[in-house]
Amino acid sequence: MLADLLSESYAAEFDESWERERTATPVRAFAVRLHATGCSLRETQEILRLLGVERPHQAIWHWVHRIADSVPDPPTAKPSRVAVDETAVRINGNRSWMYAAIDLDTKLILDVALFGRRGTDPAAAFLHGLTEKHDLSEAEFLVDGAGYLTALSRLGLSGHLDYVDRNHIEKWFHTLKMRIDRFHNSWVGSRASVREWLEQFVHYYNTQRPHQSLNGQTPAEVLN
Question: Which residues form the DDE domain (predicted)?
């Protein structure tokens, strides 16, 4: 069973990140995945100890941040329906705004980004970033106002107000905040470090976390 868990957690694209580490790569990948699912560093340390691997929680912290430097962008998609929204987060006690977009058919998180404020300009900047990463030529954006319609028009993208189907992005924010709120109400660190953590969580959500609504598949598996 342990071999299966380690095999499932292993991702070959991260090999370069694990160079010069004395702990076996699948063990480190398993620990990083445990932390992404919601275990604290010390809880992850205890689980590894029960499996016969003795490592300090500081080592696990380094594994998490090292892998964060190598997390790839979400796979390129050609969505037909995209929900976009923003939510407030606190970094060092100060409010920032996290924008996110989800492919409503595959549940793939297309991108996340942090801004110091909300409004039309940040929305347009976020949407422009999406156009550089995905094929949005046939995408219809579902938004709740807040400057999005103006931003979409500015970029020549199609969209309309929707308060039903777009709840998938709100559900994702809820999933994310359940993970965050378990340990703290405000991130401590730079915006860059928060962005790294978010990218790692998105990678876990897209490629490793099975979804009941997708018949136990991950969004990346459905996309492919």
Answer: 81-171
- Clarify whether residues 56 and 161 are in a common domain: no
Residue 208 included in any domain: yes
Cα–Cα distance, 151 to 112 (Å, whole number): 17
Quick check: 172 and 100 in contact, CB under 8 A? yes
- Is pTM beyond 0.85? Reply is no
CA distance 100 to 110: 7
Query: CA distances (Å), 154 to each of 55, 121, 151, 183, in order?
Result: 52, 10, 5, 39
Q: Please say whether the beta carbons of 158 and 181 come within 8 A.
A: no
Q: What is the 3-state secondary structure (H, E, C) of 106-139?
A: CCCEEEEEEECCCCHHHHHHHHHHHHHHCCCCCC
Q: How many domains does the chain have?
A: 2
For 40-63, how does the pLDDT look when each residue is reduced to its tens digit (9 = 90+)? Answer: 778 888 888 888 888 888 887 777
Q: Which three-class secondary structure string do you get for 147-198?
A: CHHHHHHHHCCEEEECCCCCHHHHHHHHHHHHHHHCCCCCECCCHHHHHHHH
